[in-house]
Every structure is written in C-alpha cells, then in structure tokens.
Amino acid sequence: MLWDALTLQLGYNATLVAIGATLLGISAGVTGTFLFLRKRALVSDAISHATLPGVCLGFMALVAFGGDGRNLIGLLAGSAVSAWVGLLCMNWLTRHTRLAEDAAVGAILSVFFGLGIVLLTVIQTMGVGRQAGLEGFLLGSTAGMLWADALVIAIGGAATLLLVMIIRRPMTMVAFDPEYAAARGLPVHRIDLAMMGLVMAVTVVGLKIVGLILIVALLIIPPVTARFWTDRSGRVVLLAGLAGGLAGYLGAAMSASAPNLPTGPIIVLVSFGFFALSLLLAPVRGVLAAVLRQLRFQRRVHIRQGLLALAQGQKIYEPLTLRLLRRAGFARADGVATEIGKARAAKALRDEKRWEIVRADQMHEATAALYDGLRDIETVLTQDQIAEIDRQIGGPQEVLA
Amino acid sequence: MNGEEFVPLSLTPLLIGTFAAIACALPGNFLVLRKQALIGDAISHVVLPGIVVAFLLTGTISTWPMMLGAAGAAVVAVVLIEAVRRLGQIEAGAAMGVVFTAMFAAGVLLLEQTYTSTVHLDVEHALYGNLESLIWLDAVGWSSVLDPVALAGLPPELPRIALTLLAVSVFVWLFWRPLKISTFDEGFARTIGVRTGVLGMALVITAAIAAVAAFDAVGSIIVIAMFICPPAAARMMTNRLETQIAWSIVFAILSAVSGYVLAGYGPLWLGAADAVSAAGMIATMSGLILAFAALWGPCRTRAGAPGTA
Fold first, then answer.
1. What parts of the sequence cross the membrane (chain B) (predicted)?
2. Which of B284, B288, B302, B308 best tests the A interface by mutation, with the highest count of A CBs <10 A?
3. What CA–CA distance (Å, rounded) separates A137 from A209?
4. How far apart (Å, rounded) are the C-alpha atoms in residues B111 and B108?
5. For residue B309, how many other CB atoms are within 10 A of its CB?
6. What is the DSSP letter of A337?
7. Less packed terminus of chain A by CB within 10 Å, N or C?
C-alpha cells in the first residue's frame, strides 16, 4: 500500500496531493532558510495566523458577489491581503515602538487569529455559501483537492522559488550581516519585507495542504535540519529544499496509504523525523559526533597525563588511564612502562618543557596561545624552531647523587 | 438587562474570562520583558497533544487528567526546546518552532486516530474554548450570589481559574524582588545570590499553569493574546514595572469585559441574530487596546532610539 502510494499509484487525488505537497515542501524549505538564517523563524508563525481573517473576509466577499465561496484563488487572495497587513503591523510595532520582535509576533498572531475566529463564527451564523471547507484551512484538508487547486499551488510554489533564486544574494547578505549590507547601500528594510513577503506567499500557497498552523513547521524544520549538515548558505538552501520536498512527498504518500492519517500532520512529523535524525547523526554538529569528539578528547587527555606520569616515575591510580595506556601498548598491566611507552613518555615530558619555553617567550606569543596541553609541538613549530628551543633547554644533565 | 438574566448567563463567563485574562497577563509582563513572549504561544500549542494523550490513557473526558496531561506536555515542551537549543546550537525561536509545531502535529494525528463520535474533543474547541457555555444554571438573580445551594452549581471552571489566579498572584508577590531584579539585570541578580536559572524555569512553569487552566476554560487564543497584548500595551504606558503590571491588569479586565459584551450583545445591536465567538472577540479587543497604546502611549518609543516615533 505504501509502495503504491510512493509510486503514485493510488489514484488521481492522491497523486495530485503528493505532487502539490512536494512542491510546497521544496518552496517552503528554500524560503524558510533565509528566515531562519536571519533569526526570525517565528515571524512565519505570525504571518500564517494572520491569514485567517483574510480567508474569512475573502469567503464573505465571494458570497456577497454571489458565489458559493469555494473559489480557492479568491480565498488565497484574501488570506494574502490580511497576512500582508499583519506583516506590516508587526514590522511597524518592532520598528516604531519599544516592543521586541517576539512580543510583536505574538501580538499579531493572537489578535489576527482571534479576529479570524470572530469572522468564522459570523460566517457560521450567516448560514450562506458552503462554509464547510473553511475550517480546513486551519489544519489543511487535501481530501477534495481539485486539479485547479493543485495548479494554483504548483504555479505559486514555482513563482516563489524563482523569486527566491533572483534575490537570494541580497537576502543572504542581509541575513548574515545587516550592517554591512546597509553600508553597501542595500535597502535592508525592503529586502526584509521582500523575504517576509515570500514567506507569506508560501504560507498562502500551503494553506490548502497543511493548513495555517502547520505551515510554520514546513518553513522552520527543513532549514534547521539542513543547517546541521553544512556551513555554506547555498548548500543549506538546497538541502532545506530537498528535506522539505522529501518530507512533503513521503508525508503525502503515507497519508494516502491508510485512512485517518491527515496529510498536514504527517508531513510535519516526517519532517521532524529528518530533523531528529540530523540532530543525532550529522557529522560535525550532531549529538553523536559531539559525544565521539568528547570521548576522543577524554582519551587524549588521559594518555597524555599517563605518559607524563610514567616519565616522572609516578604511579598511575586512575583505572581508565591505565587501561588506555595498556591498550596503546605504552604500559603493562601492573603500570610499568614498556619500551615504546618509555620513549613516548620521555618525548611527552620534553614536549612539555618545550612548550614551557615557548609560553615564556614573548616572541612566540601567537604560538603560545595555541597551547592546550594536548597539541603536539611539531604541528605548530618548524624543525628549526624546535631545535632552537632544544638548545635553550640544553642536553641531559647529570643528576647529583 | 436585569439580574435574573445577567447572573445565570453572563456573570460566570465574564468572571472566568476576566480571571483567565489576569492570570495570563501577570506572568506575561515578565515574559515580555525577558523576550520570552512566545513561550505562551508554544505552550498553548502543545496543550493539545497533552490532553489527547491524557484522554488515551484514562479513556475519560474528565478535567483533572486532562489538565495534568496538558501541564505535562507543557513541561515536556519546555525541556525539549531547551534540549534542542543546547544540543543543536540552534537559535531559541527556531528551536521553539521545531518543537511546538511537531508536538501539535502529533496531537492532531493522535486525535484523528482516536476519533470517536461519542467523544467531544476537537481541535476547534481547543482553539476557541467555550466561554459562552460556562453558564450558571442554578442562579436566579443577584440573590443567588449569597445562596450556598445555588453556589454549589457554579461551573467548576470558575473556582479553578480563581485558584490559579490566586496561585499566580502569590508567586509574583512572593518572588517580586528576585523576579524584578533578574528580569532587568540577570548578571546582577546572580551576583547577589538569586538562582536565576531556577527562577526563570519557575516563571515559565507558572505561565504554563496559568495557560493550562485558562485554556481549559477559554481556549488557547485568549491565552496567547493575554500573555502578550495587555503587558505589551502596558509597556507603552510607563517605565515602572509596578505601574506596568497595574496597567496590564486594567487592560486585561478591559479587554475581557468589552470583548465578552461585544461578542454577546454587539451583533444584537447591529441587528444580527446570533453572538460571535467571545474568545476571538476578547483577543481582538486586546489587540485594539495594544494598537491605541502603540499609537499614543506616553512611553511607546525606545528610550534613546534615534529617529523613532
């Protein structure tokens, strides 16, 4: 069943939904990346909640002009207008009052959503048109998706992607260093608005599939996921698009494969699954990598301390140190150094002395800053420099009895 | 309107709405100042999976397991957000967005999976609450306020939210000095021995309790609106924390009362037959108050910010 869904064999509607969700996931991931890099991820929450009054007003307008209020383009246009108004209000609040951005986001989100709910109840009491679909915009409803709806989503998503590609460079610059961008003469404020306008476009396009509450997830989770894997912004954008698209496709397919699996939440959960995997497994920033790094570091410290102890003829009591030394072949089980161990221990002690000289010498200030007790001195100084230091240390001296 | 109609039908929803508004606005003051305003948003989203899981575990729609579930979910969410933020080195807003949307999605999914027609549990209810239905059927007029028999028939939400309000007020009153100091200057608070981490967590948990109790009575929209709008509006009125809190309470009461009245009677005045959502209207009114404060409040601009206003 799932295989059928994945290969788009489950009928017309399921195929439409899968394609729509994939396109939506790609454009949401790509657009959301800039929002995330600008550290304004939750702005999308305000934008998406602010669409609700627009949907309702659009519905009322459609009914007033004699339709049944089911025209997707009309509803989406309404939602775009109210989201834009909400966006401008939020921007005004952050720029012209003392409120921080998070308070402005929360205020716009709750007030617009509250207004939307008032309008929803007004529509319910009006008793006109076919209002049943309106609540679907809260959590998305893909059951009755039509070819025209899919077309709207596809065109909207593609247009958004195209716009992102066109203004990606200024957006990246503003995201990383707004002051520099301003100094270069870029209209930072307008670029921010454009970025949020794109987010708004994605939100509006995604209303039908995942609904206004969960579209936030598609805008935030894929970029965060992608950020784990790379430090280059271009690749983050691509990976976020990939993660979003894949989540959209898999989620839509899974939801089509069994009853009672609503599309929006499944897409979000698949996306979250990718995130959780990345959080654990990503090569540099992942938790597993960090744990391994920590363990490796711990081993190096123990071996280093153990070698210094061996060189100075001290007894080692720490069992981990002893075990590590034995495994490396530096010591026997009773804690006595092997031949290799003796050589390495002598070198460790000499390196320590070399570092001591380096750190006492103003000339080596930059090198001394690299000292962490573990770094091999050969990796920071040339042979000549080490020889010079060794000359200062001098040769072996006779120990007076 | 006379007491015979007002007391049974409007008094209790009005009181519940007002208490919920104040209970959320009080911790909201500190959250807004600490730039943690969206915690309320996150909590109100994750309440949904909490109550669904509580329902799955107990199989009943009784209040206490659900409130426990909601509170548990709130705590899980706060811990998860912190974990994601630290482990993944992700900015707080994005971490919050990742966690609460995923938990909300899980809640919706669970709800769809367990849906039975006998159970009244739906997402819309969670969002808008049912303030209008919290009527006091045993009351016959103002005299019932002193009548113990009638008082026994009060909707249980009223004593619960009153108790929550009391608890929140006591928390703020007891920890007033450390809260105030650590909100404005965390470093200084630490040097004089305030355990800021514990205090911050306690504040968030208090907020979560207020959110869960209010959510039970009035839905999540009011919760988010009341956490942010009255404190934000009050912030435009004054530079003193004491005055700000007083203003925020005034604004909270004002939006609850005006919102409820407008939702219940406004459409009638306009000639329509039915009332509109009270929760939505209260949120809208708080937004209007915020808009007025942002336009004309005496302390609306950032002190010393160049070229503003």
1. 6-26, 38-57, 63-81, 93-111, 158-176, 197-215, 221-238, 245-263, 275-296
2. B284
3. 8
4. 5
5. 8
6. B
7. C
Question: How many Å lie between the alpha carbon of B105 and the closest alpha carbon of chain A?
Answer: 4
Enter the tokens of residue A62: 């459609």
Tokens of B232: 């934000």
Cα torsion A323, A325, A328, A334: sign: negative
CA A237/CA A34 separation, integer angstroms: 8
- For residue B270, being part of any structural domain is answered with no
> Top-level CATH class of A2-264?
mainly alpha
Residue pLDDT, tens place only, B215-226: 777 777 788 899
Check which CATH number belongs to the domain holding B135 and give it.
Answer: 1.10.3470.10
The token pair that represents B107 in the structure block: 């809640």
pTM of the model: 0.85
Chain A from 50 to 109: CB within 8 A of any B CB: 92-93, 95-100, 102-107, 109
Burial of A19 (0-12, 13-18, 19+ CB in 10 A): middle
Considering chain A, tell me which residue range(s) the CATH 1.10.3470.10 domain(s) occupy: 2-264
| Domain coverage including residue B190 | 3-217
- Write out pLDDT tens, residues A120-162: 888 877 766 555 567 777 777 776 677 877 888 888 888 888 9
Query: Does residue A86 register a pLDDT over 80?
Result: yes
The alpha carbons of chain B give a radius of gyration, in whole angstroms, of 20
